[in-house]
Amino acid sequence: MRNIDFIKPCLPRSDFSSFLGPLFFTWVILQLFLVILTSLVYEKEQKLRIMMKMHGLGDGPYWTISYAYFLVISSAYMICFVIFGSVIGLKYFILNDYNIQLVFHFLYIKLQISLAFLLASIFSNVKTAAGYILVFGSGLLGGFLFEFFVQDTSFPRRRIIVMELYPGFSLHCGLYECAQYAITGNSKGTDGMRWSNLSDSSNGMKEVLIIMFVEWLVVLFIAYYIDQPNRNLNRIVREKEKGGMDHPKVPRARQDYKGRDLSFHLSISSFLLHFSIYLYCRGI
Fold it and tell me: What's the number of CA atoms in the CB half-sphere (13 Å) around residue 75?
């Protein structure tokens, strides 16, 4: 029996990142959330925040320094993420406009940092599994539930926007839109998403960007407002200065540093904490 060779049309090679990207990239980006949340809860658990206040660090400088630090780490992480995906030739990164990717990722990491500050006031144990459940649950729900509603043209668009108020779904929706434009551009030999495509009726990226920007401001304000009860620590410090080391309202963590240079130990603890976070980010 002779082998018969069938003539097959030449189709562009499929890019797995465009199909698996929304789910996989959601998990990759949300790993930053675990790092930030773990760091903030660790400061709370080890009473580093109390010692910082006793050393004279107010709420404003603490928030500014911590937010700027996490923003720099997150920005460097996302830049390396996009560069690595472009270098290995993933169509998801190459075909879509880099400016759109920059704005989308930058808005989300700002929202993610604000959300971590908000949830840090709830968690009291750095070993809790709630953060991991939130990360992996967001990816699975986005990939197998939310994406189904996005693909369903009969599902009301307003309900999708309401669902996107959850940050995990807004992240997944933005990644999904970029993936769809990358798939279409790869199959037709054209570009992916451009700024002009934001006005397309089927493109939900514009709503996602607006939602993330508004939520970033709202969550940041709420997180800072909830954190205000910590200002009572300033009163504790003042009472300690008047009453001495044995004042009952003074945390025992301060008494452990009796006769030592508090600023030196505080600087070393902060440096080691931040350096461990940096190594963890590099390991991801």
Answer: 11
